[in-house]
Design goal:
Length: 135
C-alpha cells in the first residue's frame, strides 16, 4: 500500500507491506498527477517503516519514481525506515537514480523524534547524519 499526501514542505509518501511492481507503477502514475501542481522546489518525507523489501522489478519502478520527483523539483528527501535491509535497498536505488546526495535515512526504530528530524532536514537542511559540535 502507498499514500501520497501534499504538505507544507512538499509531499509525504507512505509505503507499507509488500508492494509488487504493478502497484509501484500505479504509484508512479499517481505521483505524476500529484506533481503536476508541484511548486518549483519541494521536499519529500518518505515513511517506509513497515515496507517489506522490494522485488527487483518493483525496485526498478521505484527508481523511475525517484527520478520523476527529482525532475519535478525535489530538493531534499528524508526516508524513515525500521529495517537495515530496506535502508540498504533504498540507498542503492537512490544512488542509481541520482538523488542520494539529497536524501537522508532515519532509523524510525531508534530515533524517537524521527518525524521532527526528517522535517528539519527537509525544511532547514539540518543534516541528521552530522552531530552538533560538542555533542
Amino acid at each position: 500500500m502507498y499514500r501520497i499526501e501534499k504538505t507544507a514542505y512538499g509531499y509525504r509518501l507512505t509505503f507499507s507491506g509488500f508492494i509488487q511492481a504493478a502497484e509501484m507503477e500505479q504509484w508512479v502514475e499517481d505521483s505524476r498527477r500529484a506533481l503536476a501542481a508541484a511548486p518549483e522546489k519541494f521536499g519529500v518525507l518518505v515513511d517506509m517503516r513497515t515496507l517489506k523489501p522490494l522485488t527487483a522489478d518493483a525496485q526498478a519502478v521505484m527508481q523511475e519514481g525517484q527520478e520523476l520527483y527529482k525532475q519535478k523539483g525535489m530538493v531534499r528527501s528524508a526516508v524513515v525506515v525500521d529495517s537495515a535491509v530496506t535502508r540498504m535497498q533504498f540507498q542503492r536505488i537512490a544512488k542509481a537514480s541520482g538523488i542520494y546526495q539529497w536524501e537522508r535515512y532515519i532509523d524510525g526504530s531508534s530515533v524517537e523524534n524521527w518525524e521532527q528530524v526528517a522535517t528539519d532536514w527537509i525544511t532547514k537542511a539540518i543534516d541528521p547524519d552530522r552531530k552538533p559540535v560538542g555533542a
